[in-house]
Amino acid sequence: TRKMEGVAMERRQFERKAIRLKVVCALDGEREERIDAESTDLSLGGIGLSLANPIGQDKRISMTIYDASSAGGIEAKGTVVWQSEPDNDGLCRAGVQFEEIPWTQIRRLVA
Question: Which residue among 14, 42, 71, 86 is least packed, with the fewest CB closer than 10 Å?
Fold first, then answer.
């Protein structure tokens, strides 16, 4: 969100859907270290994550997004475009912009 003349304007290209899904992440080049997360919202452009530790802004990550209808999960890649410090519940939030995703599967989730 950016402010313009006192009015907050959304910069998102796609509508977000609040959705809680299990997400397993790995920093590119470090597939051995799994980072467990939960989605907070999802769009065709990216995903909001809630996780125990910060990933690092501008880091490229690989993700497997699990929902009931995709047995093996949905594989995606993206870049962390923002993150927060831990809040009162001890969790960090991060926004990831998709770079490589299976459009048809993500489109089904946000429909």
Answer: 71
